[in-house]
Write a structure and sequence with these properties.
Two copies of one chain form a homodimer.
Chain A lengths: L2 H12 L7 H20 L6 H11 L6 E3 L4 E3 L1 H11 L8 E2 L7 H15 L3 H29 L2 H17 L4 H12 L15 H21 L15 H5 L21 E2 L10 H14 L6 E8 L1 H7 L8 H4 L3 H11 L4 H6 L5 H7 L2 E5 L1 H6 L6 E7 L4 E6 L12 H15 L4 H12 L12
Parallel strand pairs in A: 5-6
Antiparallel strand pairs in A: 1-2, 3-4, 5-7, 7-8
């Protein structure tokens, strides 16, 4: 195996709870709560019931692991599958910028299911999730922008992130991590093609990444060997699915850089690529005291991936597509001041003011923004007013980014809103879950997290 | 969607049992028997028990579908998974040349499991398997040689082949097939990197292709939408994993060309890339009356993929690696006259004559052979004898290829040998299974195939 893979797997094997700074543990709890809210918020929404029915058809009638959206129990595999589908649906789960990976939606479904299956503690879960984040983010950075142009990194690299988390939970040594990366990497799959049809693949992707990662870890534990150089080998994932892979990313500051804390929380309920422009527009409108009627035209100056991912959607036909429509997101911001789940579900497709505003919005590639991406997601908008003024605004760190993060009260508020939106739990149950998560590292039995 | 995808999905939806020529149906039965023997022959061999245990851990305690190697029953998903792992292990399953796809090991596990689950007849299974072969082979040809250089086509394209077979069994219309291709294609995964480590990924690949294809079909039936242009789209499988894709292959002579009958049976128990040279060497030694001691040197003139796949193995450490060692295969042929399972397991790693012969063998890229590949797998060997003669032999169609196929008695003999090798079934049981397969199109209940 290569030196970078050797360093990464040694780090994963050696990582101990005692070595993790308190702030990193606390942020892992934050991310867990944020994830749990996203998973529960999808209750009843298409296509989640399809995954629930599939688990009923193919899985055992009961088991050690919770399927969150319906409170049923199954084997760890199906809990990972359904919870993985659930937690990415409302587009409110976290994102790591420079890897363009959504770690929570693949790491937590797998590691919670495995922890419930194997009777592991909250501390073990936190440490394992951290390992999944640290590995997944570095592999995502390693795979580069060329990968993300065609592949849904959260699906492909997500399989490895989920696998590493479960492997850490199962206390793998370095040799097992080497095989695990091989077994997970060779299952890495997921293409962006579905976006232009507003198809359901995103849920399939995260479901499969979580479940396949768990499968890789269980089979590796039982002795299945994998390619020893799946990341950097001549017929490995970078050789097959990247043209700008950078192996040094794999071992970047292991043990001193905690990539998990660089992960952003989502504030708006839309594709993260819309957030910098949304925040910049909001700032500009507040600064200038503008209403949406006073705006003639908006040019968002964006990075190339924003155009690749969002450029497909001209007139959104579904709520999901609306979340990938820059014009719709900015329309909600301009007309209603926010673009949360409620706005998407009640206004995004039906409010004529929003559609009218959508037509005023265009995207333009900006070399500075593109150069900073994906390490930094800069927001730049240029506005022409109806009275002929040309205004501009810039934000360097969108709301939810590490330097502009959500506090625990803000996270609790978001959690309650997510659960209320879906009618998933009562306000009292929401508060109980919040309290449980803030005590995660004291819990010996994770079966209570249902 | 593109015109080729439209034609392919229309063909799949319209394909009717009555339209299939008798010879094609009969060959489908031949391929089914050949597959069943390969699956049963893996009983007890690593890593198959790992998949059996995984199915026990994660699946239901019983179910409608048979896990062949242990006679247990589970849900269709786990039967497809374990049987998919099983049937590629002994490297005796079929191969379609120009697509470099092993269709049986992905199509039959999925379609048999689904047929048992849904109470479908033998006729329905044959038609569905045929659809899987026709689609899978064309998608494999479409993806081209650049894909196979890094990706294990039987894993990637195999997911689509398995999905189409199950979709046909579930009587999908064209619209469902469009979504099915999207749902299967976005799960397509599998890298060759494992080969150089002799890792267990091949079993993981075929297991997952069969099971993921089945999952795609069941979810599509229930309403999961997929990308409508996964094959040819700008962010589809060819865009991501091929540089020489040829869309016209997707609709190549649909309804008049039956690609299934082009599929080759394996005669030697090794990687198919070794077979042309093995047959050519055997012919040369018989023609010249040579023994292995009289041979000083063998140059096999091969296509590039043979070098890519076989070139990693210098001194094989495992039986599986020996099957990917051109020198070992030719050594068994030269010293023992055959390279069947028994020779691999008793002689390939231990017979000093075989290892000595291995050292005499080299591979050399041959423009003519490479140009004909993958449509034709030409065998060319040049031999230098110890007394200084330079001899050559050429075969244009290795044993088992469509123009040099195995007869039913030869297939029955192979089936009995495979079962006897593994001790999987008694000779009487083997004969009963053979009789059942030859009556497949009369069977209403496929639960008897256990």
């Amino acid at each position: 195996m290569s030196e970078h893979t050797r360093q990464l797997t040694a780090f994963l094997a050696d990582l101990a709870y005692e070595d993790v700074p308190e702030a990193v543990l606390a942020r892992t709890e934050d991310l867990f709560l944020d994830w749990l809210g996203s998973a529960l918020a999808s209750q009843g929404s298409h296509p989640i019931p399809l995954f629930e029915r599939y688990a009923q058809k193919m899985g055992p009638a009961s088991g050690p692991a919770n399927i969150l959206v319906n409170g049923s129990r199954s084997s760890a595999y199906f809990a990972a599958l359904v919870n993985g589908a659930s937690s990415h649906l409302v587009e409110q789960d976290d994102l790591h910028n420079s890897s363009v990976l959504h770690p929570a939606t693949v790491v937590f479904p797998a590691v919670l299911a495995a922890a419930q299956d194997r009777g592991k503690s909250g501390r073990a879960l936190l440490l394992a999730a951290l390992a999944g984040y640290e590995a997944g983010i570095r592999v995502g950075e390693f795979m580069g922008r060329s990968h993300y142009r065609i592949f849904h990194t959260t699906a492909t690299v997500g399989t490895l992130a989920a696998a590493v988390a479960v492997g850490k939970l199962l206390e793998f040594d370095q040799e097992q991590f080497v095989n695990l990366l091989g077994n997970a990497g060779t299952q890495a799959a997921g293409l962006w093609e579905f976006l232009r049809d507003a198809a359901d693949s995103k849920q399939l992707h995260t479901a499969k990444a979580a479940a396949d990662g768990l499968l890789a870890a269980y089979l590796t534990e039982d002795g299945l060997t994998g390619a020893r150089n799946i990341l950097e080998g001549e017929q490995g994932i970078a050789a097959g699915m990247s043209s700008d892979a950078d192996p040094s990313k794999l071992s970047d500051r292991l043990g001193s850089r905690w990539a998990l804390v660089e992960t952003s929380f989502k504030f708006h309920a839309s594709c993260r690529h819309t957030h910098p422009a949304a925040d910049a527009l909001l700032q500009l409108m507040q600064r200038e005291g503008l209403s949406h009627e006073q705006i003639e035209q908006v040019t968002t100056r964006v990075h190339q991936s924003a155009i690749d991912v969002l450029g497909r959607v001209v007139v959104p036909q579904t709520v999901h597509q609306a979340k990938f429509s820059m014009g719709t997101v900015l329309g909600l911001i301009a007309v209603h001041g926010k673009a949360q789940l409620t706005e998407f579900h009640t206004l995004a497709l039906t409010d004529p003011n929003v559609s009218a505003f959508r037509e005023k919005v265009s995207m333009q590639l900006d070399p500075e923004v593109d150069g900073a991406y994906p390490a930094r997601w800069l927001g730049r908008v240029e506005v022409t007013t109806t009275d002929g003024r040309r205004l501009a605004a810039a934000i360097d760190e969108p709301k939810g980014d590490p330097g502009n993060t959500l506090s625990r009260p803000e996270l609790e508020d978001k959690f309650r809103r997510l659960l209320a939106f879906a009618g998933a739990r009562s306000p009292e149950q929401a508060d109980e879950l919040i309290a449980l998560v803030w005590r995660l590292r004291e819990l010996d039995d994770l079966g209570v997290l249902a």
